[in-house]
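Summary: Need help interpreting a holo structure output

Steps to reproduce:
1. Submit the protein chain below together with the SMILES for zinc ion.
2. Request a joint structure prediction with the ligand placed.
3. Inspect the C-alpha cell block that comes back.

Expected: a single structure record containing both the chain and the bound molecule.
Actual: see attached output.

Input attached:
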Amino acid sequence: MEKNKPPIRIIAPGKVFRHEATDATHEAQFYQLEGLVVGENISVANLKWTLETMFEKLFGKKMNIRLRPSYFPFVEPGFEMDMSCFKCEGRGCSTCKNTGWIEIGGSGMVHPKVLESAGVDSKKYSGFAFGYGVDRIAMLKYGIDDVRLLYQGDLRLVNQF
Ligand SMILES: [Zn+2]
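--- attached output ---
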C-alpha cells in the first residue's frame, strides 16, 4: 500500500513459523494465504463474495461462508471465517464436530488507521483482508488426518495428489 495507489488487489502466499508444540493438528511451520483488496466502495459484501467464490473453486461445489465478529488488530470490524462443512453439508459430522461449520481463518475490513499510515485516503478508499492456512484446507479437502505428514517429504503421500 505504501508503494502502490488503489485499486490494490493482492494474494500473498508464504511460509510462516510459530513457537508451537507439534501434534496431529498443529505445526510450528505452515503455509498461509493472505489477500488484500483496497478500492472505492469496498464492503463486507465484497469480502464475503470473494471468500465464497474462492472456496467454491477450491472444493468444486458451492460453499457457504459465515463471518463471526472477532478482534484482529489491523481490521475493523474483524471476523472469524467459517465454511459450511464440505463433508456433511451442514448436517453435522465428526469433521465439523457436529456444528456444520469449519473454522478456516481470519478476515475483516482494513482499519482506517492502517490505510492512512500507508498514505491511502480512508475517506475515499476502503478495503478488506483475509488469511487462512493452506495446510489446513489441504487436510480438510484430502482427508489428511495428521498435518506433520505434509512436511516429511514422503513422495508416497505427495504423489497421491
Ligand atoms: Zn460436517
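--- end attachment ---

Reviewer comment: The pocket of zinc ion is lined by residues 85, 87-88, 92-93, 95-96, 100 (CB under 6 Å). The two ends are 36 Å apart (CA to CA).
Status: needs-info
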